[in-house]
Amino acid sequence: MIFLVDASVYVFRAYHSMLPDMVDRDGNPVHAVFGFARFLGDLIERVRPRYIAVAFDQRLATSYRSRIYPPYKANREPAPVDLAMQFQHCRELCRHLGLAAFVSPEYEADDIIGTLGCLMREEGVRSAFITRDKDLAQLVRTGDLYWDFGAREQFGYNDIERHFGVAPERFADYLALTGDDVDNIPGVPGVGHKTAASLMKAFASLDHLYADLDRIPGLKLRGARTLSDKLRQHRDSVFLARKLTHITCDMQLGVGIEGLRRQLPDAPALGALYDRLGFGPFLRRQSERLAQLPVS
Question: Model's pTM, two decimal places?
Answer without folding.
Answer: 0.94
